[in-house]
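Hello support,

Our group uses your service weekly, and this is the first time we've seen a run hang past the timeout. The protein is G-protein coupled receptors family 1 profile domain-containing protein. I'm not sure whether the cause is the sequence or the server load. Input pasted verbatim:
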Amino acid sequence: MNSSQKKQVDCKNFAELSFSKSQISVQWRSEVTSCLFWSIIYNEFLLNLSIFTILILFTFSLVVNIYLLLGLEHSEALSWNPRYVLLKNLIVSDLLLTVMISLPALHCLLWHETLIFNFRCIAQYFTIAVATLGSLLTITSMALESFVYTCHGIHYLGIMTNMRLYCFMILIWLLALAGAGSSTTLVLMGRANFGRILAGFVCEPEDVQAQLEASNYFETFNKIFIGSVLFLFLLVFSFSYGRMYQIARQVQQPFQQENAHARCTIFFYFAIFLLQLFPSIINLITMFGRDVDNHIYMIMLSLVPPCVNPVAYGIRNRCTLYYYFNASDSDSDIVDHAPFQVHLGFYFHASDSDSDIVGHASFQTCHGHLLSALLQSIHSSHPHLF
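Update from on-call engineer: The timeout came from a worker crash unrelated to the input. Re-ran successfully.
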């Protein structure tokens, strides 16, 4: 019996109380602390704090992501842009992840009930795995798109065609479904003991593994697959932003000043990417040492990226904000009155003279109002190029 299965046995007696509605006996008080679930349920402060935190993260993620998604869908200037197509895909993945994690956790906390291992639990495990992989694959794809735009801008239109973009989106979901499906298949092949009570709030790999009589294949696959995927994502992201960082160092401001703004922007998005990977990294670490109860903390940690992503990649973006507050303006008005960004990141106003150009080569996620309007005009006039 591994440590994960032992923990399930220790919590089983306490879990049964949630269905009988009886009070925990005095002689069990000292043992409740060994089961994190019931140590939270019978601690009013921790219970209220957990409910409040998850509810805040759930509400914020739901409102911000839906607001941004609806705005992108109704914006003709942004909806066709490759970067924002990827952003919409990220929002869908984050919404799916938020709903599948928050609702079961809130149900367990509010009703003082643990989960039962059944096909519903397996479906939840599969959906969370698909959403997590979809988010990671999409953010990695956004890093590649930024790399192509920044380092190969002259070929950007030829590379980021609509057909290639949509095929890439389909590939993202196929890879996510394949990874989650393989793991779920191993669960069904591992002689699962259905009907048992789980000690966690969500059907996580650790809880699912504890219900398998033959868990070696499932455990080995998860370790190898998650480790390989994380390594690949780090490699791709490091390469993409590493090249952009090198270009940012080469492009200098007037008076031979270093381009600190561009480097700070690159480091900012790299930190956001690491935040996205952090829950998966913690899960991978706990697979090699499962002696610590971490269910509620992992739930809160997993809900942070869906809250940060729409702010970092969407609302923080100057293009997105400008199009949101100028939805009634035409593209010509946007070009005439808005500050815009050309390739290599030199900001200026349409009415400014050459001497007034502020050349700080910042690699913002915004493609620039002028370039965005120009690409949309080309897209409307010559759709066969996309």
